[in-house]
Amino acid sequence: MATTDHTIRLPSSTYARLQAEAARSHRAIDEIAGELLDERLPQPIADHERARAALARLAALRARVGRGVDAVALVHESREELDGRIPSGE
Fold first, then answer.
1. pTM score, two decimals?
2. For residue range 35-88, what is the model confidence (pLDDT) as tens digits?
3. pLDDT digit string (tens) for 23-38?
4. Helix or strand (DSSP H, E) at 90
5. Where are the domains of the chain?
6. DSSP code at position 45
7. Do 33 and 18 meet the contact criterion of CB atoms below 8 Å apart?
8. Separation of alpha carbons 23 and 20, rounded Å
9. Which residues, 6 or more positions from 28, have their beta carbon under 8 angstroms from its beta carbon?
10. Where are the alpha helices (DSSP H) in 2-89?
11. Distance between CA atoms of 37 and 56, rounded to whole angstroms?
12. Distance between CA 52 and CA 8 in Å, rounded?
């Protein structure tokens, strides 16, 4: 894997813990920091995985709402309800 140099500011106590782990495991500090970050940070999601996740959310929404919903009728009913909440003359 290609690497690049970056500067990260850490509290002294955190850096000391990183140094202690490096000494204990006989490994470089940057190797340990990289592993810790890889374990903690989410991995990027590929486009096809993102699309699958979106489709799964849509399927779950459809299951909750039901197949017999008429979206146009729902919008009209909602509009009528909102219009009924506004006092006349405003």
1. 0.47
2. 999 888 877 777 788 888 888 888 887 777 766 667 787 788 888 888 877 766
3. 999 999 999 999 999 8
4. none
5. 1-43, 47-85
6. P
7. yes
8. 5
9. 22
10. 12-25, 29-40, 47-65, 71-85
11. 29
12. 35
